[in-house]
Every structure is written in C-alpha cells, then in structure tokens.
Amino acid sequence: MSNNGDERIVPPDLVYVFYIRSTAPKVWEALTSSEFTTKFFFGRTVESDWKQGSAWKMVMPDGALDVWGEVLISDPPKKLQVTWTVDWVDEADKTGPAIITYDIEQAGEAVKLTMTQHSDYAIARKYIQAGAQGWAIILSSLKSLLETGEPLVVKMAPPK
Amino acid sequence: MDTEDEAVDGVFRALADKSRRALLDTLFARNGQTLGELCEGRGMTRQAVTKHLAILESANLIASVKRGREKLHYLNPAPIHEIGDRWISKYERTRLEALFDLKKALENDNEQ
User: Fold this and answer.
1) Is 3.30.530.20 the CATH number for A14-148?
2) ipTM of this model?
3) B78: part of which helix (H) or strand (E)?
C-alpha cells in the first residue's frame, strides 16, 4: 500500500472539515492563542511556542491541567500537528496519545479547516464518541467566533 | 465555496433523500468506511452509492481521506451544527426548553 508521507497507515478516528470565512493566519492564531481558545474551547488557555518538538498544554479555567503533548509538525499558518494526552482520563483507560492534525487551506474566500484525529493505539470508544461531540461543538464555535466575533453558547456535560 | 444560502440549499437537498440519510446513519454507527463497506446490504449499485456519497461530500456532510488506494468516509457534522444554530437555536430554543420543562414536570407528576 502506498503512503505519500503525509498519510498515516492507521486510519483516522475522526475527520472534520469546516469552511470558515476568515484567513489562514487568523485560523492559526485562533488555534494557538489563549485570547481565542478561552472563547471557543470551553474557557481553556493554551501554552507553547508552537515550534516543532516543543511541549504544549491546555489548562482548564480553574488552573487544572487538561491536555498536554508535543508539537509534531508546525508549519504556520498551514499545518499544525500535536500529540494529545488527556490528563484526567482514568488510569485504567490510559493508552498512548491521540494525534490531532489541523490542516488550514485557503478555499476561495473561505478557509478550509480539516481536523483529523489519529491514534496508534485503540482508544476506548466512549472517549472517541464524547470527543467527537466535543470537537464538533468546539470547531463550530471557532467558526462562529471568527465569522461573527461571538462564540456559540452550548451547554455540554463532561464525558461519562 | 458558494454563498451561505447556496451552501445551506445544498445541505437540505443532500438530506432530502432517504438513501443519503441512511448512509449518514451508517457512518454514525461506524465512522471511516470504504465505498465497498458502504455498499454492503444496501441493495443499490456501486454507482448509485458513489453518486450519493459525492452529493453528501459536496454538501460537506461527509469528509473523506485517502488511505492507500482506498477512500475512507467520515461523518462531518459541521453543516448540521450550522443548521441547528441557524434554524433551531435562534427560533426554537426557548420554546423547546419550555416544552422540555413541561414534559419533565408532567413525567415527574406521573411518578409520584
């Protein structure tokens, strides 16, 4: 089976495509700066210099660590790939990290944002499903924030 | 990308077909399927399924990735969220919440 380098042998668990009326640098900035993430990512801040090989983390509004990982690919404003370890997952359910890739391309007057989630490990289905719901809301809210200046107001229970 | 209205038209047209909704349900049950898998037990030609998938993909209701020679199809909820936001939240959220509260209140009465 051929592999063009970008393509992973493991099929993704999730692929979400959003068309956002914005520019690639703005989408990049929204994904990598707390000024934006606090508005669309359930109040979370992000910390990293976003360089390849650097650590990154996402922190909950109360200061607790939420997600951490490593920047695998950083090609602003086109591609960002990070490992994604949710810090508070039950010990029994811990596997390796998920890998989240954002591809940002200009598509006419809009930006096509593709979010792909892979993992080299089998992640429990309940986390994938809860994550799928969360990602849909987060990315919809990002789109709303960039297009209208306002994020979506969505109530969501944490994954059970 | 067309204007917003045209995009919304495309989503409703794509959803206005039983077979296409069934394809979305199949991907909801298991994401990331190949054309071959999506054809199984559907009683439709491969060409018909391909055509339906193309319509769903152009409406952005599914996203696909290439894996070797195969194409894997993923449910893409973006347009559904936008429609929900535009056509449900804006007009109906208060009313739906009121109805939901009423339903809850009535159900609680029954339990007592």
Assistant:
1) yes
2) 0.73
3) helix B78-83
